[in-house]
Amino acid sequence: MRVAVGGLMHETNTYARAATTLADFEAYQFAVGTELFSFRGTRTELGGFLDGCEELGWEVVPSLYAVALPSGLVDHGVFEALVDRMADAISGGQRPDGVLLALHGAMVTTRSTDADGDLLARMAALLGPEIPVVATVDFHANTTDAMTDHVDGLIGYDTYPHIDMYERGREAVTVLADVLRRGARRVVAHQKLGLITPPQAQYSDAEPLRSIMEKAHALETAEGLSITVTPGFPYADIDSLGLSVVVTSDDPLSAKQVAETMASDIEARAGEFTFATMSVADAVDRALRVDGPVALVDSADNVGGGSPGDGTAILAEWLARGGSGLVVSLTDADAVQVCFQAGVGSTAKLMVGAKTDERHGLPVELSGSVRVLADGRYVHRGTYATGITTHMGRTAVVESQGNTIVLTENRVMPFDSQQWLSIGISPAYCRAFIVKSAIAWRAAYGEYAREVVDVDAPGICTGNLLRLRLSGDRSGMIRPKLS
Ligand SMILES: [Zn+2]
Questions:
Q1: Residue 479 in domain
Q2: What is the pTM of this model?
Q3: What protein residues have CB closer than 5 angstroms to ion ligand 1?
Q4: Does residue 242 sit in the same domain as residue 301?
Q5: Residue 472 lies inside a defined structural domain of this protein
Q6: Are strands 364-374 and 347-352 parallel, antiparallel or unpaired?
Q7: Residue 242, phi then psi, degrees to nearest 5
Q8: Å from CA of 149 to ligand 1 middle
Q9: Number of domains comprising the chain
């Protein structure tokens, strides 16, 4: 068997102002042709595809794999050019017997609100009805009929933090192998709920999703199905918002029935998708009073949801109270430049953070000693996408009034503890640390936190979804209230 392999992933936050360009894909993960094989051994979907194909003795036709950090609308011309390159590689030589694609499922371009659906429709048209396509999607896919109509399997992550990318890649290979062996197409049933939930309420180790996923797994075993629940990505003002249930089966009737039953069970629990949060002042107060380390979760400035990662509201409050023992990372290329010019051991006067826009606090003035200057590269050693390399860009560690401020040129998702360990910082010894994330940070730093406080700071990934401006009749969708 010859199987084409590729991927194009972006989680688009339509509230972020800057468009996402080709440079954003090239700066994060970008591989063409045989470069895709460099992902062998990583615990990603692509790593799972490659191992699965090798085990079955399949010949891999590598196409294109491009991933950008979550951010604003993808330039439609860039999207089309990337899909063209993928399509050319897949259909350029001898036609493949099947196709495996790693998608996110929440990509919005300057012209399309369902770029993933467009991509899969384009592949189906290119390949014709004989060649099966199986795709993987993120837990935060805003799944559409266009996505499920054009595949023989849509396999989503079961976990958040997403620590099962590799396993879902392997599952996609298993589904494709079954389709190819039996020569029978699979049906993918899709049931959508008008239920929009904040990421903080989507933790898969907590209710309600823990028991929802347990039920899905029990049904999968009993019925021989593949069930995916995509709670969805709420930070997009598009029609396809909301939780979906997707069932892949060779029996259309049972696929539809299981999808409907699962969806109505989840709808009955809509009110459980909630979480507790604290004002900035109360959160800082709490962290200064209790034994740390306290994780101050700045989910409104969630880099993994498209925020800038330079929000200062919590840091400003901490410094105003005279707090010490805080660790925080901020995106700030200007401040990094000042530190590199000053050099290690010197004192730098800085205005840090809040430079992307006016929605994430104000720049904070501080003076501190430059402790570390680094190139900011680290390899993921934890459970999230183990083996991939993250580039923070040039990185400076500044100590100010007993607080540790990490400044980076690039936006960084805090999903692996090497982010701090690689530059000599252990969160085990601080009073509090701020994470620019909602849930996924737990894969990196969950073990260090003696207490977790979700902070209601300002930002475009606010957990209070009632603050989001949704256009048209989307304002009637269910958005559970916070406790
Ligand atoms: Zn996700």
A1: no
A2: 0.95
A3: 138-140
A4: no
A5: no
A6: antiparallel
A7: 120, 160
A8: 22
A9: 2
